[in-house]
Amino acid sequence: MNKNDRIIICGGGPVGMVAALSLVRQGIPVTVLEAFEEPPKDPRAATIHASTLEMLHSLDLANGIKQRGLMAPAFQFRDRNSQEIIAVFDMKHISDETEFPFAIQYEQWKLTRDAMAAVQSHDIADVRLGSTITAFSQDYEGVTVVYEDPADEMHKVEGRYLLACDGGRSTIRIGLGVFMSGFTWDERFLVLTTEHDFAASDGYINRNYVMDPTEWLAVFKVPGDKDQGIWRTLFPTEGHEKDEDLLSDAGVTQRIRGLRSDMDHSDMLHRNLYTVNQRVADRFRIERIFLAGDAAHLNNPLGGLGLNTGIHDCMNITKKIGDVWYRRAQEDVFERYHRQRHQLATEFLQSVTIENKKRIEEKDPEVIRANQMQLRDNSEDPAKAKAWLMRSSLLDSVRKEETIE
Predict the structure, then answer these.
(1) Which of 83, 237, 271, 294 has the most other CB atoms within 10 Å of its CB?
(2) Which of these CATH numbers, 2.40.50.140, 3.10.20.580, 2.40.128.110, 3.50.50.60, describes 7-73+102-182+278-361?
């Protein structure tokens, strides 16, 4: 093995596996190093937007996702106190812009599983699960990664480039000393998952944002481990609240009864607590190493943009790697990856997700009324609805990327 015969991908989650699939379909060998021995099934991202479905379609993944996922042709905003539906954004308004005028609810571990199966069908793919990165280096010829396998044995792998898709606590990013500018929200997000049918009991659709100055929330339906259909409810918490209180039976019952008085902790399948960041790495490219997904940017989950922008990162960089690999471009094209994806992460991803959070948590009554009037107007006017949906589905972001030199 020499440093010019493969690409190393650190992190075998959805971003890493989609990156690997994109590369092997171009005939480029990959080695994927993933710490977990199987994709974790804890509640993480689950919304795949139209722009991302277009990319996954190019990798022959979209049809399977469409068959196994839950269609979300619209999303709604509600007022928690009055239970009034403020606005419904119907994605039919972008049907002339994409062959996927909808989002699909499909858990990220399933996307990881699908992409991994496709990757492993290629002889030039080498997926090594249970591999913990212990060291890495780069020089003018390539990159070297040292890792520990499940049997505690050390190994070394070399490649031409390294793609770091190893999450928010990225070993690669930290080892490079790349700073993530931004901030951490004081409150954390509590996610409670249940089989209770909020569509039947409360008229919720598959994606819902509930506005409330005291305790906003989001309600989403996802397929579930057995494709039985389950619901995730996302609540903000106060910074001073302790983990053990928030996750206790009493704490969970108190939260869920604020939504429905006939439910308690025994109705929950999962209870999870997440720290929420708004951060962007200062550099996405460091010589032969590229950051993508959560290793490059972190944001709150409102709008479902994190996973999607991670997929956009990897599709961008793997196209450029292919161009350099086959000598259609020089290595200076990699700086364009940084310029494109860093600018969009800073100017678009961060601003939209912060705006999404502020909109549903607003406390000033006058601002709340103005926000709700604007939401209703935007959803009912076809041109305004289309503009909103082009932005929220990231179709605008993809088109903007193409203009950044």
Answers:
(1) 294
(2) 3.50.50.60
